Amino acid sequence: MVMRRSTTRPAQGIDPWMLEAERTVQRISTRPDLGPAPRSSLVALGLLAALRALGLVLVAEAVARGIAGLAVGTLSTGSVRAILVLGMSGVLLRAAAEWATETSARRVAIAVKQNLRGRLWRHMVQAHDPRGGTAVLATDGLDDLDEYYLQSVPAIVAAIVVPPLLLVRILAADWVSALAIVVTIPLVPLFMVLIGRHTGQRTDAALRALARLSDHLAELARGLPVLVGLGRVEEQTDSLDTIQRIYGRRTQETLRWAFLSALALELIATISVAVVAVFLGLRLLGGSMDLQPALLALLLAPECFTVFRRVGVAFHASQDGLAALHRVREHLEVAPGTDLREAHGATVRVAGLEVRYSGRGAAALTGLDAELSGIVAVTGASGAGKSTFLSALVGALPVDAIVHGRVTGIEADLVGWSPQSPRVFGATPRAELALYGADPAAALAEVGLSRVAESAAAELSPGELRRLSVARALARVDAGARLLVLDEPTAHLDHHAAELVRDAIVRRAERATIVLASHEPMTLDLATSTIRISGQAGRADDDASALTEAARDGDLGASPVPAVDGNADQGRYGRGPEQGVCAGADEQVSDETGGAQRLSLGALIGAHGRLWAGAVGISVLATSLGLALTALSGWLIVRSSVEEYIMYLLVAIVGVRAFGIGRSVATYAEQLLTHHAAFRTIDDLRLRLWRTIAARGTGSRRLLEGGAPLDYLVTQADELRDQLPRVVTPVISGVAVLLGATLTTWLVTPEFTVLVGAGLVTTMALGAVLVATVERGGDVARVAGRSRLVRGSASLSAAAADLRGNGVAAAAVDQLDEINRKQSAAERRATRGAGLGTAAVTAGTGLLAVLVAVTDPAVDAERASVIALLCLALGESLAAWVSAVHRVPSVRSLLHSLGSVLGPFPQATWGVGAPNGPVNSVTLEQVSVRYPHTARPAVAGVDAVARTGCWLFLDGPSGSGKSTLLSAVMGALPLSGGTIWAETSPITTFAEKEWRSRVAWCPQDAYVFDSTLRGNLLLSRPAAQAPDDAALRRVLERVGLTVLLDALPDGLDTRVGAGGRALSGGERQRLAVARALLTRADVLLLDEPTAHLDTPTADAMMEDLRTAADDKVVILVSHRHDDRRPEDQVVRLS
């Protein structure tokens, strides 16, 4: 049997420092797409649009009859009662239809998003796309569909349903007006098409740029720990600023064309209504038409044009949603990776297994035949294909793998797997093991992790993470799995922890076939058979004696240490971030610091106060012009019915025209300025968040991992950016318009001042109260739910291979589905509240208009028409105010969450100087480090010296504080006692930037960017000091990657895939070391640099490292005894 994946090269990833790197992006269609929405929902929306139109007809009928009655003095008690019944019926019908439309559209949007999210998550674990942009797409991207289903789809349906219904009533009242509308109404869709064609190409280009730039932001967020370690945060801060400014410019370019289209359509609609109004006015002036049908036609005609204008505006506004829909479809069209496994057969057999990766000249694995039973050791040099073979056994090969051969005797759901670079999905070790079907307490105790059961998974050290990974794979065997696959199960572990793991493996030997890859002789000694992989072919060797003899006779590769007692882990986990209860996906950073800084809305927008003040002022002006247009139009029609000379009306006619054009232009300006202010505000905030996370991150991995940077920098920041224009401007302008409307009423008809003022205040208050009562914190829960979803999606994306290989992907997706259901419930509550608030405003303003028309017969028709139409026109502004008030709690929640990141945290007090010349020694004198809110230090009383030519070797069990000490040397953690000296000066006498530039950190499992080999290496230095190709090749030679480089057709320009997935674990580790070596730092901090490497490769790389770093101060963390030299100083932590 041969199974083959397509050789089509996958879409390339994003290079975060090459802003205009091109990637294949399908052109986004400008044709409306109903997506996966059920067609029955369109019928429901059509019926609701018809009811809304009927309600408008009834309200218009009531207002027209009332004002006409005032004009001729024929209002009686009976006619007033009939008008009130007619008007109230229309108001209630229209309000109910508005509420039902919004609720129904939201229900459709929620159902579609829930369905697409589930499908995307399931596809994510099958196709294993670890790009951060995929997690953003599954959350923020799909949330953009709200605009599409809430605006575009109802607008399209209304454009089909409403005009014919209104034309029928206008035709019954005045056939001339109906004819004028029929003649002019095609202008709107005609210009919509023309404008769409003109702007479509620009919009598509902007949206393609947005897709790339959103991935840029996600990639920078995920790679932040590497940037911190290389001292590249400041330069990448400039890159982030450039990226977000390009992102903002592109987004505003898209918005500019959308707003310009809206402006053009608004002007066309205004002119078209003016044509109808001219016919009405002239015929009223000539006495050939009655006032009532003229008013009815004037009130209904704008809606005939408005529904088409809404289609154009809504479609442009929903382009992000359409783009997200297309991107989701593109992702879902990518076939999952090839899984050769077949369940038949009692023994695991591999026949003719060959694996090739796209872009590689040579096969990763060729002609492997084996029969697996007992404990099988897979050996070979780093990069020979061991992990590829193990991935084939567990069905975790990447989607671009081209696979031949057969693998039989494996049931996909009965496999336990611990990969080389494990990733966790659960928030805590207890939650992770529960997901894998284990008894968490027993599983953790078996590998010595009982004390970290409730710790945040993102805070675990690599050694602890390794043991957790093994524990969950063992749990799969306990649950019935018959194949246990372990890739480097004892890497990063001290002797005692490794012994615990080896004993646990042996205990499962009778229950499952065990296949393990390792470079540690004591672990390989467990094997009963061996498969040697040379990178070209594999062969099974039933006699493991040669290997085990090497293990017995040679150095065991790990320094024996005393057994770790309970205080070892407690030394680390008795401190702040790691102790305490389970850290959920929405846990606030303030939990770590003891309090959050209050980030107020005023302080946030204050830096750009002039922009916001201008936006509010123009918003008030635009709304006022719109109100004046409507009110003056009503007065003009009524006056035309009694005026004999047209000259008297010309001033008003010019005023109507000026107000109409002025409103359109002012609205356009206000939208541009408001969004520009929002982008400027959030850009500044994002940079503050970036710098703070970078400064705090090395002391709290929770801020750097688990999707937290993506959540803060992308999801929450973008959510706040979207909320600001919908809160700041509407709240202030709504109050201003209320005061202006009340003042206008007092000036025009003092008799109605109390009625109108009290009615508008009551309407606004009722709308706000109804929203708060019905939604019950739904919008706040919605915002919090988005954070949980993006973090969960990021965790799912990162851990996809682990979940799939262990057969628990469905359980993980089920957990996200539950979060998704809660999110949907919160959105439904928020929508019911918002819809009810809008309905209350519609009902209130419509009722006021009817009451003004019939309450006081002594008021003349001209003044009554001004106030009645003014009340009707206020609906949109007051609805925006209620919606803004509804969003205030969610804005407050976002400010609190982001403020928790920006809150005060312990940090060193730095000086202003710089080291005099190279740093040739670093001395630790009684150094102690204690995390906030803990009584016991993580590291206490450490004395050590590292100098050029004499490395400092940090030893100790997992969790003993080795990485903490490295963070202190970097200056990322303040000391609670002692001093760190650089030559003869404490490091805190230097400026922080100066010291950070002298230190380079290579962490364990360092992140590899979705770029090229060249691009990852160039991160080591500023662009002005970039090394040439010769330097890049030399450093790759020093870390043993020359063979790999020579085998790549594209050489240094070969892309390494998202997270470096095109490289083996050892190759990723060596690339990270090469990146650190390229820096010009005087002090080099290496954390397990030889992990995942075979002994010859590790020995050669360490020898080259000694040569390359002979002029540097090196502090090394390693459990490998052979990495030491006699002249090195060894400090053992416990």
UniProtKB/TrEMBL annotation:
Intracellular or extracellular location(s): Cell inner membrane
GO biological process, any: glutathione transmembrane transport
Q: Which UniProt keywords apply?
A: ATP-binding, Cell inner membrane, Cell membrane, Membrane, Nucleotide-binding, Translocase, Transmembrane, Transmembrane helix
GO molecular function, a single term = ATP hydrolysis activity
Supply the Pfam families for this chain: ABC_membrane (PF00664), ABC_tran (PF00005)
All copies of domain ABC transporter, residue ranges: 348-560, 922-1134
Q: Which parts of the chain span the membrane according to its record?
A: 42-60, 67-93, 148-168, 175-195, 257-282, 611-633, 645-666, 754-774, 833-854
One GO cellular component term of this record is:
plasma membrane
Q: Does the keyword Signal apply?
A: no
Q: What is its membrane topology?
A: Multi-pass membrane protein
**Domain annotation ABC transmembrane type-1: ranges:** 41-320, 613-854
Primary localization class, coarse: membrane
> Do the record's keywords include Cell inner membrane?
yes
Q: According to its UniProt record, which protein family does this protein belong to?
A: Belongs to the ABC transporter superfamily. Siderophore-Fe(3+) uptake transporter (SIUT) (TC 3.A.1.21) family.
Name of this protein? ATP-binding cassette subfamily C protein CydCD
Its source organism is Dietzia psychralcaliphila
